[in-house]
């Protein structure tokens, strides 16, 4: 259970954005590391290709940020990318969009409870952390894929730069 933001402050709003963007920078490096012919096709153990997982993350980032900002939880209507270059372009667009939407989030919204996407009752902060956890989970799967392909993945601290 998360503490009320007025009682405990672990991260500032700006710290949380930088933390999120650090994860996004690292995931972008992972996308870059994939060979073009494998990002949308390579799988192991019944898992989806990483390109599909990365697209899922794209469909979550801005809808979560907008939901926290406005209380309106609308899913993404994006079309799946068909190339690594297109995936990276969309990733960069979302990075800029996240930076643009972030200042519009009123501080109390992080502690307010909504029914995100009509499914999950949680605070704004919990919705953001869910998105982060999902990204970390899928990036871990991508690390396994890259190693299986004989590619050394980026160091996990590379996104902090």
Short structural summary:
With 161 residues, the chain is mostly helical. Helix content is 53%, strand content 5%.
Fraction of residues in helix: 40-55%
What composes the largest sheet?
2 strands, antiparallel
Q: What is the CATH class name?
A: Mainly Alpha
Q: Give me the CATH superfamily.
A: dinb family like domain
Poorly predicted tracts of residues: none
> What's the overall geometry?
globular
* Individual helix count: 4
How much beta, percentage-wise?
Answer: under 5%
What's the N-to-C terminus distance? 31 Å
What is the strand tally? 2
Q: Strand arrangement, largest sheet?
A: 1-2
Report the order of strands and helices.
HHHEEH
Describe the structure.
This protein is mostly helical and 161 residues long. It has a single domain (13-160), classed as Four Helix Bundle (Hemerythrin (Met), subunit A) (Up-down Bundle), CATH 1.20.120. 53% of the residues lie in helices and 5% in strands. The chain is built from 4 helices and 2 strands; from the N terminus they run H-H-H-E-E-H. It has helices spanning 13-33, 50-70, 84-101, 124-148, and strands at residues 113-116, 120-123. The protein has a two-stranded antiparallel sheet with strand order 1-2. Strand 1 (113-116) and strand 2 form a beta hairpin. Helix 1 packs parallel to helix 4. The chain starts with 12 loop residues before the first helix and ends in a 13-residue tail after the last helix. The model has no long low-confidence stretch (mean pLDDT 93).
